[in-house]
Amino acid sequence: MSALRILITDDYADWRRQVHLMLQARREWQDISEASDGLGAVEKAQDLKPDIILLDIGLPKLNGIEAAKRIRQVSPNSKIIFLSQNNDLDIVRAALSTGVGGYVRKTDAKRELSPAVDAVLRGEQFVSSSLKGIEFTDTAGEKLLHRHEVLFYSDDRVLLNRLTRFIAAALKAGKAAIVVVTKAHADSLLQRLKADGVDTDDAIQEGTFILQDVAKALPTFMINDMPDAARFSEVMSGLMKAAAKAAKHPRVVACGECSPLLLAEGKPDAAVRIEQITNDLGKRHNADILCTYPLSSFHGEEDEHVFQSICAEHSAVYSH
Fold first, then answer.
1. DSSP E strands: which ranges in the chain?
2. How far apart are CA 180 and CA 174, in angstroms?
3. CB under 8 Å to 254, separation ≥6 — which residues?
4. Contact at 8 Å (CB) between 262 and 271?
5. Mean per-residue pLDDT over the chain, rounded
6. Using CA atoms in the order 291, 295, 297, 299, what is the torsion angle rounded to 10 degrees?
7. How far apart, in whole angstroms, are the C-alpha atoms of residue 250 and residue 240?
């Protein structure tokens, strides 16, 4: 059997190495190239004409979806599989609408990447089992799934702009919002929301806008430097139920800085555990959750495992 030519595209070198090792388990999959950004993927696709191209979504220079569109023009016989942590419905739909062969979540890669390549080579479409049951066509009766998204931000201006849009949109739509952030961010957020026409005083009084200081919230559920799942769920479930009852809309949105604060204190395991518990909580309450981390929290390859673990708990990952 002739060697299969494969191109791995991801901006994290350690992840490319992991994928490389997964693929090399098959003797016929030894001809492997790499690219670290979208434009590089397009250029290598044009030069090498790979049989299989693995693309992340959030690539620098050119995102994976746009890269896939260009690759289909310069190397139409190449089969494309998105290999991404993102499971945001709109993004998954947009990715599959480019006519690619498959979509595999990174958390499923160890058991599903090889079957995905085999399926795509047979002319079939492969979608990760963790995404099965989701309809990828626009239908009026589509079930709304909870969202647990993360923003890695470069400075406070980016953070506050995103939080303001997130909270203002929810409150204006009649939803409830729960915010657990630092006092400095809370003060700035209140000013911005008022400037955006949100009556935060009334919302707080009505119970549809719950604003808490993260430094005071953390001790209520931490035991021996680790979050206690039962205490955390009890505290947050109580807030979500109360907020939903006060609002006109049953859906609740929430954002917080518990994990970033723990990470800043040198407790990465506790930070990741908070994300895991929060993910389960969001599913139970059908809530939309936004987590935020300063990019300065991560320092090169030594923090890459923590970064990937945090990303793995989210339905969408953004970096600005």
1. 5-9, 31-35, 52-55, 79-84, 102-105, 126-127, 148-153, 176-181, 209-213, 222-223, 226-227, 252-256, 288-294, 316-319
2. 20
3. 177, 178, 179, 180, 236, 240, 282, 287, 288, 289, 290
4. yes
5. 87
6. 140
7. 10
Q: Provide the phi-psi class of 138: left if phi over 0, else alpha when psi is between -120 and 50, else beta.
A: beta
pLDDT at 187 over 90: yes
Question: CB count, 10 Å around CB of 15?
Answer: 18
Contacts of 198 (CB under 8 A, 6+ apart): 167, 168, 171, 172
Residue ranges and CATH numbers for the domains of the chain are 5-131 (3.40.50.2300), 148-319 (3.40.50.300)
CA distance 175 to 243: 9
Dihedrals phi, psi of 25, to nearest 5 degrees = -65, -20
3-state helix, strand, coil in the chain (%, to 5): 50, 20, 30
Helix axis angle, 64-74 to 38-48, nearest 10°: 20
- Region for 225 from its dihedrals, namely left if φ exceeds 0, alpha if ψ lies in -120 to 50, beta otherwise: left
Instruction: Write the pLDDT tens digit of every residue in 141-159.
Output: 334 456 788 899 999 999 9
Mind listing the pLDDT tens digit for each residue in 17-53? 999 999 988 888 878 999 999 999 999 999 999 999 9
Instruction: Judge if pTM exceeds 0.70.
Output: no
3-class state of residue 197 by DSSP: coil
- Do 105 and 131 touch, CB atoms closer than 8 A? yes
Which residues, other chains included, contact 48 with Cβ-Cβ below 8 Å and sequence gap of 6+?
Answer: 5, 7, 33
Residue 154: which region, alpha, beta or left (left: phi > 0; alpha: psi -120 to 50)?
alpha
Neighbours of 138 (CB within 10 A): 7
